[in-house]
Amino acid sequence: MEAIDIxxxxxxxxxxxxxxxxxSRDLLSFRDISIxxxxxxxxxxxxxxxxxxxxxxxxxxVMLGSPMExxxxxxxxxxxxxxxPGAAREFEPGPPSPEAIELARVVDRGIRAANCINLExxxxxxxxxxxxxxxxxxxxxxxxxxxASSMAVMAALMDTRMPKYENGVVNREDRTNKxxxxxxxxxxxxxxxxDRIVLDPTGDEENAMSARLTVANDGKLIRxxxxxxxxxFNIDEVEELSRISLEKHAELKKIIGSExx
Length: 261
Description:
Blueprint (H helix, E strand, L loop, with lengths): L2 H15 L15 E5 L7 E7 L2 E12 L10 E8 L14 H16 L9 E3 L2 E13 L4 H15 L1 E2 L1 E3 L2 E3 L5 E2 L7 E8 L2 E4 L3 H6 L2 E7 L4 E7 L6 H22 L5
Parallel strand pairs: 4-6
Antiparallel strand pairs: 1-2, 2-3, 3-6, 5-6, 7-10, 8-9, 11-12, 11-13, 13-14
Helix pairs in contact: 2-3
């Protein structure tokens, strides 16, 4: 970490310790969120999310595939993530970084655990099914990529129109049927900075945090969790953050589902 980053992190810790943030939010509020759907013409579904200055693009492509051996009457979902090198100074060209792999897995885990995609509805006939590929692109990084990516993926899935399959032929011009999506999963990511915890950390706040906790839920149940960094959360903190995550779901669900193609 460069000297200027160390000074900035110390300043962030001092602010948070006083219950203040650089952007004047309270400790448990999201930045402004905007979602645009249907912005990639040739994708089956797409959405772009802006969470403060963090910008994420998600696209869905539906391809003909084969069921897995242990789920012969289900289709497949595959989530991947890519960090555009221009999105942050530390991003570099090349194969997916460990951070990009983690991002894709955390987003995928919440959706999969809540059965958001009805995989049985993707089955076509013996040996054939739909594979739903969801690609996440980080266009600008100013913290909390997980929550922004989760919102973009859910919005893109809700925007997805399925190609028509008939007599062994895929017709991509006929996309009248929507992908069957069961509910909305939303994630809430918390950062521990000093002895305080904040929701939706910015890039500067992430540099100052000692631990990160992401909670995925569908408004009824906690579906998945992911901890990051070397710090820790005690059991009381985990229980409280889980409660807050469930409370935030209604707010996030409304935003994710509010703007149609």
